[in-house]
Design goal:
With 275 residues, the chain is an alpha/beta fold. The protein is built from eleven helices and twelve strands. A hairpin with a 4-residue loop joins strand 8 and strand 9. The two termini are 20 Å apart.
Length: 275
């Protein structure tokens, strides 16, 4: 973090397979990290990923609500409601990460309802597919005070499944639903998704150059976009690369917008304060 100029990060632990096999649906890793170095970490609830959330979505959400309520976590997630295999998992044939949990399922309803009641934001991994857009919009409308961070702006891994998603659609979401936010963790301009053979970070025009329509959108609504790295436990050695990618994107924005996206937007969202 020091060598990459990262002052503070939201840290979300996960429940490993061994712990899950013993019936665990929660990890205290975030609290331990904060206890060791409180200036560096924003405690985030246990990641809603395989196996705990995938196998027991409602029980996992209920467990999350119990701990978050008791211990005052400022952020929840990321909850994988629709998740393809990541590129490295695709190459390894790890199909267990191909997950579908309906956003309007009982687990989704419980999560949105708690977020609305508590005011605590949460992150979702929700692959960009036209068929998934309407259910998400209905949930945003039904729970207008549930603040949702949709991770991985513009990460379209199968273009034929997402004909209707573009900067204009995201602009419509922002202008219609004051409770939707987006994180800026995605691959570089040369990153290709092996399942489709397509460049899946659609925000890039070329190496280090962001498409002007995305720049304009973020400039118009900077407090709805959050800097992010998406560093999983199996790739922490890639922090230099992910940080370079994020900085390359942010450097396309006007200077005053860069500051908002880099840290001010997250601070206001999580703590209700102007940084």
């Amino acid at each position: 973090m020091d060598s990459n100029g990262i002052a503070v990060t939201a840290f979300s632990p996960q429940v490993g397979k061994k712990k899950y096999a013993k019936g665990n649906l929660w990890s205290d890793g975030a609290r331990r990290a904060v206890g060791i170095d409180p200036a560096r970490y924003i405690p985030t609830s246990t990641a809603g990923i395989y196996p705990a959330f995938s196998e027991q979505p409602l029980a996992f959400v209920e467990q999350t609500i119990a701990y978050v309520s008791e211990q005052a976590y400022p952020l929840m997630g990321e909850f994988e409601f629709r998740h393809y295999m990541s590129p490295r998992q695709y190459r390894r044939g790890e199909a267990y990460r191909d997950v579908t949990i309906a956003i309007d399922s009982e687990a989704g309803q419980r999560l949105f309802a708690f977020a609305e009641l508590s005011g605590i934001p949460f992150e979702i991994h929700y692959e960009i597919e036209d068929a998934l857009l309407d259910p998400l919009e209905k949930m945003l409308a039904h729970y207008p005070k549930a603040r949702v961070i949709w991770c991985h702006l513009g990460q379209v891994r199968y273009r034929t499944r997402a004909i209707n998603y573009d900067p204009d659609y995201v602009r419509k979401l922002i202008e219609t639903y004051p409770n939707i936010y987006f994180d800026l963790a995605f691959g570089g301009a040369d990153s290709v998704y092996p399942g489709s053979g397509e460049h899946h970070a659609t925000v890039w025009q070329g190496t280090g150059v962001v498409r002007p329509e995305w720049v304009q959108l973020i400039t118009d609504y900077p407090y709805r976009f959050l800097a992010a790295l998406d560093m999983g436990g199996d790739r922490v050695n890639e922090i230099n690369q992910h940080t370079r990618n994020l900085r390359a994107f942010i450097n396309n924005l006007p200077p005053e917008t860069r500051e908002v996206v880099a840290y001010k937007a997250a601070w206001r969202l999580l703590f209700g304060e102007e940084f």
